[in-house]
Amino acid sequence: MKCLGLLFAIVAGALPAVVAAQEAAPAAAAKPDLAKAQSIVSQVCAACHGADGNSAAAANPNLAGQGADYITLQLEHFKAGIRTNAVMQGMVATLTPGDMRALGVYFGQQKPKGNMAKDPTLVKLGQQVYRGGDAATGVPACGACHSPTGVGIPKNYPRLAGQYADYTYAQLQAFASGTRGADKEGKDLSGRIMGTIAKRMTDAQMKAVADYAAGLRAADVALH
Q1: 95 and 43 in a common domain
Q2: CB count, 10 Å around CB of 112?
Q3: What is the number of domains present in the chain?
Q4: CATH number, domain at 204?
Q5: Which of 76, 108, 140 is a domain's end point?
Q6: Do 121 and 179 fall within a single domain?
Q7: Deepest of 24, 52, 178, 219, by most Cβ within 10 A of its Cβ?
Q8: In terms of domains, do 85 and 121 share one?
Q9: Residue 157: beta bridge partners?
Q10: pTM of the entire structure?
Q11: Are residues 102 and 39 in the same domain?
């Protein structure tokens, strides 16, 4: 309960902006063009993320089963320069809003292959932080936002279950250093929250959580 309280305190300042953004969103959107999305994936995305969203390299995230809204939001952030990555910004340069939405839906419908925790010595610490956080340093439980099974909570909190530990660890480092989630205009609300949390984590906790999350299994029914 203490960790949930810490989380609520962290996000309280961002909630009004989140609500406003949601209210400003269009009430209805056109049906996603999944055929076009599949074509874009085969020509552009598959080289790094796999044709089915299961990446062959730990440096590139698995997108299969990821929340559709979360994927779309990240593509929008890359295109707007809110999130920076030279490769990704080149890839999204010609994508339309409809393309980005369709890609989110396409990858969200793919089945993740899953992963496994690799370091038994990290599992206990990873489980402790993921489930209960660290009240002494103000780190809330990861599962409070990313769900106990790691499936995430669209649209702001991504699926972590089955994600490469190397990738998750690298993102935690980026949040802690301010190279992700610290855009000048403050539009990456979830990134700001994660930056606050990651700065309170030790390197050992980051590695442990990343490894533990890689081995989480979420029920297929929770993917869609």
Answers
A1: yes
A2: 22
A3: 2
A4: 1.10.760.10
A5: 108
A6: yes
A7: 52
A8: no
A9: 153
A10: 0.85
A11: yes
Instruction: Look at residue 26 and tell me if it is in a domain.
Output: no
The predicted-structure confidence for 32-72, as pLDDT tens digits, reads as follows: 999 999 999 999 999 999 999 999 999 999 999 999 999 99
Expressed as residue numbers, the domain containing 96 is 31-108
* Amino acid (1-letter code) at residue 123: V
Distance CA(62)–CA(59), nearest Å, equals 10
Can you give the three-state secondary structure of the chain, one letter per residue?
A: CHHHHHHHHHHCCCHHHHHHHHHHCCCCCCCCCHHHHHHHHHHHHHHHHCCCCCCCCCCCCCCCCCCHHHHHHHHHHHHHCCCCCHHHHHHHCCCCHHHHHHHHHHHHCCCCCCCCCCCHHHHHHHHHHHHHCECCCCECCCHHHHCCCCCCECCCECCCCCCCHHHHHHHHHHHHHCCCCCCCCCCCHHHHHHHHHHCCCCHHHHHHHHHHHHCCCCCHHHHC
